[in-house]
């Protein structure tokens, strides 16, 4: 049986890093606000990421060319580290990568930071991972400048919720993070409280489903024997925004504490459909992002 670990670079990596460069001024964040600019940046980063995270051991020069054409600065060293085991593997590797979800976190005229979910395939082995990419526009081209796998990065300063598109975007992100905190923070010693927190941040049709299955949810929480909390600095970006409805891509590392006190970390990525109700946002659907 062939080992899959060396080839599935992102799925097995615990690498993470801080975002390179100077923080973007609040007024400069045009993610979603500039729709065509956001789409163009996301497409460019998608193309670059898929090129540099694919590798064929029978033709390594193609990988080197992709890195030279699409990467700058700190990201070059990060890719060298990520692909060290792959390049040294005695087994043949034909790794292909595609971006299956992405959302812009920040966008200025020459800098974009995005959250992306990548699916990697090597033969019959398949892995899924979430990364934050920072890209810099140089000479009219977007180059990857920083890569953080399983990111735990401080979010950009939010725009005031003043009715503007930027304010609505950041309100939706904050709302999705509140929803995630309530849904995924559970305590087997307090199943009723765990359920109540979840019920308070969801709306139909998800709310009706929760209520119909309440007994099952309570039983599952009680039997888990664990406490679950969100790790620091979960990442979230708006995929689509229409009035008081949004789709938000969300990533967090869940901290799971067993009855004996052992703590394990579990990366978790999902898409939330959220709807605004007054000053708050509630989830109408939650879709964990899984490999196809």
CATH topology of the largest domain: Nuclear Transport Factor 2, Chain: A
Averaged pLDDT: 91
CATH architecture of the largest domain: Roll
CATH class of the largest domain: Alpha Beta
Can you walk me through this structure?
With 292 residues, the chain is α+β, with helices and mostly antiparallel strands. The protein has two domains: 124 residues, VirB8 protein (Nuclear Transport Factor 2, Chain: A, Roll), CATH 3.10.450.230; 124 residues, Nuclear Transport Factor 2, Chain: A (Roll), CATH 3.10.450.50. Helix content is 31%, strand content 35%. The two termini are 22 Å apart.
Summarize this entry quickly.
With 292 residues, this protein is of the alpha+beta class.
Supply database-style keywords:
292 residues, Nuclear Transport Factor 2, Chain: A, 2 domains, six-stranded antiparallel β-sheet, five-stranded antiparallel β-sheet, 8 helices, 31% helix, 35% strand, disordered N terminus
SSE topology:
Elements: H1 35-52, E1 55-56, H2 60-70, H3 74-82, H4 84-88, E2 94-107, E3 111-122, E4 125-138, E5 141-149, H5 165-184, E6 186-187, H6 191-199, H7 206-212, H8 214-224, E7 227-230, E8 235-242, E9 245-257, E10 263-277, E11 280-288
Antiparallel strand pairs: 1-2, 2-3, 3-4, 4-5, 6-7, 7-9, 8-9, 9-10, 10-11
């Amino acid at each position: 049986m062939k080992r899959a670990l060396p080839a599935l670079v992102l799925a097995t990596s615990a690498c993470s890093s801080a975002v390179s460069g100077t923080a973007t001024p609040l007024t400069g964040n045009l993610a979603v606000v500039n729709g065509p600019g956001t789409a163009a940046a996301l497409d460019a980063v998608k193309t670059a990421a898929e090129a540099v995270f694919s590798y064929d051991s029978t033709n390594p020069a193609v990988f080197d060319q992709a890195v030279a054409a699409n990467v700058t600065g700190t990201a070059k060293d990060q890719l060298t580290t990520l692909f060290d085991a792959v390049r040294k593997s005695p087994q043949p590797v034909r790794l292909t990568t595609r971006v299956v979800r992405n959302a812009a976190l920040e966008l200025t005229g020459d800098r974009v930071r995005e959250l992306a979910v990548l699916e990697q395939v090597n033969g019959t082995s398949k892995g899924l991972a979430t990364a934050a990419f920072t890209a810099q526009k140089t000479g009219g081209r977007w180059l990857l400048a920083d890569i953080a796998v399983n990111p735990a990065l401080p979010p950009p300063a939010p725009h005031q919720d003043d009715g503007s598109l930027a304010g609505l975007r950041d309100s939706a992100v904050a709302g999705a993070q509140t929803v995630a905190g309530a849904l995924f923070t559970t305590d087997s010693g307090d199943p009723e409280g765990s359920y109540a927190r979840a019920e308070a941040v969801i709306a139909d049709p998800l709310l009706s489903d929760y209520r119909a299955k309440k007994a099952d949810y309570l039983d599952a929480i009680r039997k888990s024997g664990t406490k679950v909390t969100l790790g620091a600095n979960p990442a979230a970006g708006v995929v689509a925004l229409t009035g008081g409805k949004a789709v938000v891509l969300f990533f967090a590392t869940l901290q799971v504490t067993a009855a004996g006190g052992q703590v394990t970390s579990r990366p978790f990525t999902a898409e939330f459909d959220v709807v605004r109700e007054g000053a708050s946002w509630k989830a109408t659907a939650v879709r964990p992002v899984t490999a196809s």
